[in-house]
Amino acid sequence: MAMAMASKPAIRSFLRSTKFPCPYASVTARHFAHTPFRAESRPNAQPTNHERTTHFGFETVAEAEKEARVAGVFSNVATSYDTMNDFMSLGIHRLWKDYFVRSINPGSSSSSPPSSGWKMLDIAGGTGDIAFRLLDHCTNINNSPSSTITISDINPDMLAEGRKRSLSTSYAHSPRLSFLLANAEDLHTVPSNSIDLYTVAFGIRNFTNKDAALREAYRVLKPGGLFACLEFSGVTNPLLDAVYKRWSFGAIPLIGQLVAGDRASYQYLVESIEEFPKQEEFRNMIQTAGFVVPGKGWEDLTAGIAAIHKGIKPVEKS
Ligand SMILES: C[S@@+](CC[C@H](N)C(=O)[O-])C[C@H]1O[C@@H](n2cnc3c(N)ncnc32)[C@H](O)[C@@H]1O
Predict the structure, then answer these.
(1) Which annotated residues bind S-adenosyl-L-methionine (predicted)?
(2) Axis crossing angle, helix 81-89 with helix 92-104, rounded to the nearest 10
């Protein structure tokens, strides 16, 4: 229990006492070699009194700086992203993603045969992991070959990986699949009330302004449309939480260093998980954006290591 409730200084001291090298040693000395913002414009920038701040992992940075720092992380990890995901989650992320898509049941229709397919938007879609699963489900399970998806991401390197991977699917060059370079906090090229399903998997914790992204999700969804989010969350079992924290803070940055030659990016990834609002708080944020949540609003996966949150845009705003 103590570990589950522990403050960040307590976690730091716990980790120092483990046999793993202290993962925080590198925090202030992070190097983001591919992050021009850091390298050229504001090296070691500290927020001034007048700037709005946010978290970048455990660091407090100016809001204006976070986007560039996150971009640096994902540009660094883009080519090794899948391998590293497998190492980091012991392959479990694939099961979570499969379950996420099954739980949405995209392409389903009350009319038979379905007349028009679902219009889907996968935000922070990166390498297309979720989007290809959604299209497969529409086609193979719900006989909805007219369902379409747009993979949107802020990072051109991650989108390039998605495009590359799409070439080995039947959706390459098909009108069912498109790509959009955009910040989830400002989807101005996506019309209001135009989307049936908005998904975001392991993306929203990286956004600078999560509330703005949720408001955009609400805007672009049709009334009755579904918001579905898969994200790391709060581990519900204290013992598992202690083991999980030790694994994630001790091993993942080290694996990042050994497999991808990049400790700093993976240090950020584990810190960003810790900083992300836990189940209930995130559910409240989804409600504040205007969504109606089914049941309690979320479903824990693997004892809360990850969670699926859903919200429905009401047909008439109450
Ligand atoms: C951990 S990856 C997840 C990729 C994919 N959804 C998956 O589940 O494998 C996080 C993605 O979020 C994207 N991202 C970060 N901030 C973003 C923002 N403000 N708007 C859109 N995408 C963003 C990153 O570029 C990265 O591709």
Answers:
(1) 127, 153, 183-184
(2) 100
Q: What is the pTM of this model?
A: 0.83
What's the pLDDT band for 24 if we cut at 50, 70, 90? very low
124 lines ligand 1 (CB under 6 A): yes
Check: CB of residue 246 under 8 Å from CB of residue 20.
yes
Q: Is 203 in the pocket of ligand 1 (CB under 6 A)?
A: yes
Q: Is the CB of 127 under 6 A from ligand 1?
A: yes
39 is in an annotated binding site: no
Is the previous residue joined to 156 through a cis bond, with omega within 30 degrees of 0?
no
In this structure, are residues 138 and 107 in contact, taking their beta carbons and an 8 Å threshold? yes
- In this predicted model, what pLDDT tens digit does every residue of 119-130 receive, in sequence order? 999 999 988 999
**Tokens 């983001």 — which residue?**
32
Enumerate the H helices of 237-278 as residue ranges. 238-260, 263-275
274 lines ligand 1 (CB under 6 A): no
Contact between residue 310 and residue 226 where contact means Cβ atoms under 8 Å apart = yes
Four-CA torsion 272, 275, 279, 282, nearest 10 degrees: -90
pLDDT tens, position by position, 75-102: 877 877 777 788 778 889 999 999 999 9
What is the residue with the minimal CA distance to atom 4 of ligand 1? 126
How far apart are alpha carbons 20 and 249 in whole angstroms?
A: 9
* In the predicted structure, residue 4 carries a pLDDT above the cut 80: no
Q: Could you give all domains of the chain from N- to C-terminal order, each with its CATH number?
A: 91-232+276-318 (3.40.50.150)
